[in-house]
Automatic annotation (TrEMBL):
Pfam families: DinB_2. InterPro entries: DinB-like, DinB/YfiT-like. Residues 24-148 form the DinB-like domain. Gene3D superfamilies: dinb family like domain. This is DinB-like domain-containing protein. It comes from Bacillus gobiensis. SUPFAM superfamilies: DinB/YfiT-like putative metalloenzymes. Coiled coil: none annotated.
């Protein structure tokens, strides 16, 4: 199996293909706004929505840099500010999810269309090549998907019976 095929598989498993962990699209499917903004009483964890905003920030920033649209890339003072929520409405929750799904899919399309030499070309504004950045983003997604599942379970929002 080549690197591109392996990475495409990893990328898909973070969004919509079941693997060793549930894909984010399925995890978020029935999460309400109330569940999305919920935090444990001690406040030590980010909410589900904050985690999705954080994932979206880094994927969107990378997409904009890859496309050479740095003027449109999201900005943050520091990592902590990447968790910032828009106004907490149902519409904004839906928009956040849809934008994340769109950006993730766009990056997947870029990967799928890339030739071997494109995979290893350094991306302006990034430290690494397309293949290394997407590998890191996939691992980052998997890590935070685990947190989102845990938060869902803490709220009793995780269905007792799932296919994964």
């Amino acid at each position: 199996m080549d690197v591109k095929t392996l990475l495409l598989q990893q990328w898909a498993s973070c969004l919509d293909e079941e693997d060793w962990f549930p894909p984010l699209e399925k995890v978020l499917e029935d999460i309400t706004v109330e569940q999305a903004i919920w935090k444990p009483a001690d406040g030590a964890m980010n909410s589900i929505w904050e985690l999705v905003c954080h994932l979206l920030f880094y994927e969107k920033r990378f997409l904009m840099r890859f496309l050479g649209e740095t003027a449109n890339e999201p900005q943050a003072e520091n990592n902590e500010s990447t968790f910032r929520l828009p106004t907490e409405t149902l519409e904004n929750w839906k928009e956040t999810k849809q934008e994340y799904f769109y950006v993730h899919r766009e990056l997947g399309k870029i990967l799928a269309k890339s030739e071997h030499e494109d995979l290893y070309r350094k991306i302006p504004g990034e430290d690494n090549s397309l293949v290394l950045e997407l590998k890191s983003l996939a691992m980052h997604d998997a890590y935070h998907i685990g947190q989102i599942v845990f938060l869902s379970k803490m709220q009793g929002a995780w269905p007792g019976k799932r296919s994964f």
